[in-house]
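Appendix B. Chain record.
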Amino acid sequence: MGKKTDENKKGILNRYGLIVFFLLGIGIMIVLSAGKIVFSTEGKKWREVGEKETIIKDRVILPKRGNIYTYDGKLLATSEPLYSIYMDFWAEGMKEDTLMKYVGDLSTALSKKFPDRTASQYKNIIVNGWKLREKEERQIQENAARGIDKKVTLKSRYVRILRPDISYVDLKEIRTYPFLNQRSNRSGLIAEEKNARKRPFGNLANRTVGNVYKDLEKGGASGLEMKYDSLLRGIEGVKSRQKIQGRWTDIEEIAAKDGYDIITTLDADIQDVTERALRAKLEETSAESGTAIIMETKTGEIKGIANLDRMSSGNYAEGNPNAFSYMNEPGSTFKTVTVMVALDDGLITPTDSFHVGNGLYQYNGKWVRDHYWRQGRDRGYLTVTEGIEISSNVVMSKIVLKAYGDDPTKFVKGIDRIGLRKRLTWDVPLNGIEGTSSIRFPDDKVNYWSKTTLPWMSFGYESKVPPIYMLMFYNGIANGGKMIKPFIAKTLLKDGKVVEEYKAEVVNEKMCKDSTLAQIQSMLVGVIENGTAKVVKSDFFDIAGKTGTAQIASGGGYGGYYVSFCGYFPADDPKYTCFVGIRKPQGVPSGGGQAGMVFKNIAEQTFVKRTELAPAEAKIDSTLQKMPAIKSGNWENSQTVLSMLNFKSSISDSASDWVKVNYDSVAYQPQALAMNKNTVPSVMGMGARDAVYLLEKSGLRVNLIGSGKVVSQSFAPESKLVKGTTISITLR
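Structure tokens predicted for this chain:
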């Protein structure tokens, strides 16, 4: 019996040994196969296939392009994410029966939200997308049956469903629509993110801020967007998409670095005044184009800049950067340069007189004419001061011929001494000669110096000076003789912290002697008081400046006029310097009556907006006192503020804490707002905080537009409430 038991044990152990040996053999085979897969080319192939199915590598993370602000933080340009909406009809979880069940409801919802297509058109796009997939499936099967190894292009892989790119708020909403409210591997919904450039102030300073290419990755195309593109654009990051439990997830590998923000010198209020004043005059005179620039005298900061061209439609819009690039003979605004050079060289005095007669003077076979020459009036002799005031070409010609007739080089060197021939770069990028003065030199081989060049230069011809240079010159006069370069980009920010601050570049520490400067300043006040710019005189402060009227060279002759005015205010303590130029106005050309009136309009409105009164000057007008308006909203909060300000208010007789507030000359009176859990509440007149709280409490999603108080809401007050829908409210 014991012998038999031992034999049984031995048999069992042998069988276990065979099993262990068999399993060990299988294990060795698995290890060998795994090693083959890991280290062989076949393994590499299958890893690539696996990764292709579960991992998408090296996808770009777009950085946020930096914002551009006004000097006080108002947004001129910003980036916001937009989404292009597609459906992938090859999504692995997409089912035909589910799609066809909900396609009608989905199409109706899309047509209500995006009415550029009808519900039937949306339905056709979706149904045709599925039919296209079926056609492609049949083609793949037919190729396989015939043994044809030909790749079929999947046109139904990504079908664009919506024409416009949409916001994130809209994206969240359409993900609640029938069929699209499933996971993306079942709905096939694909939202391709892109950055778009937005301008909260519309076209304000459009040409100066500049544009970006339609494909934002290409960066800035003009203006500040182009000049500072390398700082604004940021640095791209890298991510991969990995399929985890059937859902694609983004995994960040290298973080994107957002671009720097730029604070400009621009003042939105002054910019608006500048554009409006210029546009009004252009429309009145049917001019071809115009430019207006206003800068702070001491700092060089440009506060407003407008470049308006007449479009084919007849309207005026920002076009060319005329302030920097318009190369035309400046005309009489250049006479101040002539007198400054001659005074500083000690070759004339303000009281020197020159015979002008009836305003005609012939030199070397060519006539120099004053603007009054057709009147036939003999003015006899005019002093240098009178020559500036009435803008006499004859006086200017005789000044330079007397002072520099034997040495014209000395005159041009005097212009160099001022700084008007310096080559400068600007915040608005330019090409070629644009943006740099083109002033002739006697031995210049490119620009021919004729026998009449000197006298014609004296009154602003045979030279080309862009508006920004004339502004810079007159600002130097206002700034005690210190010429500084006007600029727009002021501060560079990163994550809200100042990285770099820009200041005006000093072009010339001292343009002329102090005595010369005082004489020039007096003459420019005389232009307003006694001369060609009497219409520019203001009742509120003194102005100093000079008019300009120049014919425009065209096809070897002249056609049309360029009128301008450049000056500063207040004359006794300059705060701002301004240039206005108008190209080809209709009617009698007038530097004072046309460009000068734009200057006056800008100056007076700027003065009113930016004047700071001493407390003694800001007395209460007892004849007109107006109580501050109170926004609608939470009455308890309003009462707290009113109590702190010692304003009288009545007690609300309603249990509701949401009210509209009126003032009845005695006290603030609350009027209860209708509240119903089944209807849309009225948020008209409320601030953003109260409006958003009340709407979200009602079950609505809120899309906020603007700032201030609510002036409109997309769903009418007390209309039927559908929870989960998005309501848009506009604030001003």
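Further analysis of this model is presented in Appendix C.
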